[in-house]
């Protein structure tokens, strides 16, 4: 029986991964999460759970903690929509890149054989559309790409490294407020307009999968048969219009969704960028440049990931309904 350690065990991905690994009955699971400790009955009693800030531990403490672990999963870090004080590039690099590279080096020292990173599918679009200069314009995407590159560079000398590029993930963690709450509040305030082109047709969309599927994919990535590299995951490609309508129905909202031309859309973004600037902050997604991403189809065809990682079909629309019904 192998041992797996999941950093970020109380988050959406970590919670799903814990269950997925335990359900195989082939793994012992240890989680490490930031406080607070959830209420009784939320954590899976089959796993060992630890709480604290791993970034505040010494190298010797981390190596000791990781001794005996076969697989380490990084499902932590700061998400894309956090707006830190300037400069954002330095903030996201320190929060999301440095810990991954450093932990990979310490994991090797501890005898861990495989390090799996949960990163962003924006890395895929960075490679697909180099003309968009995504890493130059968006501090979060810059850090996400660096995070993946630096982890893969650590492959070797006893440690295998894998990066899973995740799309938008939907699911629930018992006793925890969904990360989609902010989205729901902005939708209620009509702050999520649809961009329409010169034919008055809504454009843009994204890829989604359930947290359960991500958990299954992580179990797949833990297999020694899986080649160390990057894999771009996904399941359902959904237009922005269809997603908004599903969220609206689940919220039982009668609010009309506003439509904007690209020019109007960018004007709103410029106002948002100005307000962020006045506050001395900087967004992970530069607001004006982000409008172009929002008007594109951020769709994924995850043939290789499905074949190699063997995650299963799941009802994304039902998961979206369940998430927004709770908000």
Provide structural commentary:
The longest helix is centred in the N-terminal third of the chain and has 23 residues, at 88-110. The mean pLDDT is 95. The protein contains 13 helices and 13 strands. It has helices spanning 12-24, 59-66, 88-110, 122-128, 134-137, 139-153, 181-188, 211-221, 240-251, 262-278, 287-294, 303-309, 316-325, and strands at residues 2-7, 27-33, 48-51, 71-74, 114-120, 160-166, 168-170, 194-195, 205-210, 230-232, 236-239, 259-260, 297-298. With 327 residues, it is α/β, with parallel strands linked by helices. A seven-stranded parallel β-sheet has the order 3-2-1-4-5-6-10, sandwiched between helices. Strands 7, 9, 11 and 13 form a four-stranded mixed β-sheet that branches. The protein is globular. The chain has one domain: Rossmann fold, CATH 3.40.50.720.
Keywords:
327 residues; alpha/beta; Rossmann fold; seven-stranded parallel β-sheet; four-stranded mixed β-sheet; 17% strand
Distance between the termini: 40 Å
Which class in CATH terms?
Answer: Alpha Beta
Strand order of the largest sheet: 3-2-1-4-5-6-10
Mean pLDDT: 95
Q: Find the structural class using helix and strand composition.
A: alpha/beta
The coarse silhouette is: globular
How much helicity do the residues have? Answer: 40-55%
InterPro entries: Epimerase_deHydtase, NAD(P)-bd_dom_sf
Protein name: NAD-dependent epimerase/dehydratase domain-containing protein
Pfam families: Epimerase
Domain NAD-dependent epimerase/dehydratase: 4-173
